[in-house]
Write a structure and sequence with these properties.
This protein has 60 residues and is α+β, with helices and mostly antiparallel strands. The protein has one helix and three strands; from the N terminus they run ββαβ. The protein has one domain. The N and C termini lie far apart (41 Å).
Length: 60
């Protein structure tokens, strides 16, 4: 299983990457294309989850 890199801050839906998000842009029942999150039908709430490298404190 891949790591989650995109999350909708409105409904909590999670996507592995841009490709995973794109696979959910089309409603399979109606054929309607969404702007982002398939639940909220907008990209206004999408947030990239970025991991920062562990930084060791420096004693300068």
């Amino acid at each position: 299983m891949s790591e989650i890199t995109i999350r909708c801050t409105s409904c909590g839906s999670e996507f592995e990457d841009d490709y995973d998000l794109e696979q959910n842009l089309v409603d399979q029942e109606t054929g309607e294309i969404h702007d982002g999150c398939s639940t909220c039908e907008t990209d206004a709430y999408l947030m990239d989850l970025i991991k920062y490298p562990d930084l060791e404190p420096t004693n300068d």
